[in-house]
Structure prediction request, 266 residues.
Amino acid sequence: MKKGLGQAETSLFAYAQMRGLQTIRAGELTKPLELSPVQERKLLSRLAKAGLIARVWRGLYLVPTRLPLGGAWSPDEILALNTLMQEQEGNYQICGPNAFNRYGFDEQVPTRVYAYNNRLSGDRRIGSVALTLIQVADDRLGNTEQVDTAEGQTAVYSSRVRTLLDAVYDWSRFNTLPRAYNWIRKELKAKRVTPAELVAVTLKYGDIGTIRRMGALLEREGVPSPLLKKLEKALPKTSSLIPWIPTKPKRGTVNRRWGVVINEQS
Prediction:
């Protein structure tokens, strides 16, 4: 154990290791360690502030299976995220910059984990793990793949095709247009995704603006007409126009079929 740990701290880690516990909940230690609720609360708070355990949620803490040399400890990203979502009885999928990096769209390695979920919104920190939680409706979750980690956890990521769709749909959050158009072109050319997959995921998870932009892109890429007509049927009749690249002035060639102003070649 780390030098300087008191009897209560030593007893907590010994109890957790003996029971094989990965989490400890407030109220769980009062009987086995003969602590009052106040003593238990102060003990958990003291260890969390010292970086020896990690607070996940009110009254719930992650503990190391073995205290590392030097004493400092933090859960890995997937353990932290899984534990939080299990506590909230919610579902999630890792998205945005983490998914862009996973599939090779962007070389930048994120310093935090971005996750769509159906319970929480905002930034949180669990130990040294920084999370950006994006709350969405249940029907916006889906089209995922599961990845087993070396630590024995299962991570849920947005699929490759869903990640491409979200780079267009959630462009303002992730700052991905016009880069996303090039990602989609490359994936189509390499046959890692198909036009049919893109159309299906766009119709299920996209909004009107996303359908328009995806339709204009796929038309430019020579996608067969039957697939384009599926997107077209989902669009209401309107004379309004949206920009191909939302951050640029709405000046350029007008694609009337999709109601998109092609305001920059990309």
Summary: The chain has three domains: 7-62, 77-158, 162-262.
